[in-house]
């Protein structure tokens, strides 16, 4: 995977010490960027929170944007460590023309692994806020571009590939993309609207038992939706096909009305 920022080592203390210092700065920056946003965060506050002086931050990352991109790289690496195996399995299932049942399970496996990642990573709370701001358009555009290139784009491609097969439509078709995003959105709402959902559920946190409940319910819903796509494909009742049938029917009525 390409790196977002130039990597530097500490002059004194060796490689291990330099890595530890760099990791502390990234951890502090993730929280501050998440709490305040890119514009309001200052390199001075990030350095103070990490327990280093300002020149150390400049040494490792050049400037505030460099720190921000290092945070993005950190999230990408952590997420991909979680999902790389299930994503590769799903890509293989699509490439090898697996049957509908296997494709559905591949989709749900990615969903379940992402859920595990979202709620069990050690710094999940910090990067959840960071990602919410990034998705809203805050921060340097290079951050979003890096995440899309290395995680979101690849995940979207394989998920759309599965839905394409189940729906019987091209992978880049609007209906295919909308449906794949809707199915995955069941999970993302617990990430992006976490506080509201916890309040409605009267939960103080998402512990292991509650996470398993979420994964079970979301998985069941996803399987129902994905199986419904297969039925729609086999019966010719997708949104686009129905739209085409209506257009043909309207054409026939017009010809009848005109005496054709």
Task: Offer a quick outline of the entry.
With 260 residues, the protein is mostly helical. It has helices at residues 14-36, 43-50, 54-61, 64-95, 100-120, 124-135, 141-167, 174-192, 194-201, 208-235, 239-257. The protein is elongated and about 65 Å long.
Which structural class is indicated by helix and strand composition? mainly alpha
Strand tally is 0
Q: Total helix count?
A: 11
Instruction: Assess the beta-strand content as a share of residues.
Output: under 5%
Q: What would your notes on this structure say?
A:
With 260 residues, the chain is mostly helical. Helices cover 79% and strands 0% of the residues. It has helices spanning 14-36, 43-50, 54-61, 64-95, 100-120, 124-135, 141-167, 174-192, 194-201, 208-235, 239-257. α7 (141-167) crosses α8. It is elongated, with a radius of gyration of 23 Å. Mean pLDDT is 85; it is low at 1-7 and 9-15.
Describe the secondary structure blueprint for this structure:
Layout: H1 14-36, H2 43-50, H3 54-61, H4 64-95, H5 100-120, H6 124-135, H7 141-167, H8 174-192, H9 194-201, H10 208-235, H11 239-257
Helix pairs in contact: 1-2, 1-4, 1-6, 3-4, 4-5, 4-7, 5-7, 5-10, 7-8, 8-10
Spell out the key features of this protein.
260 residues; single chain
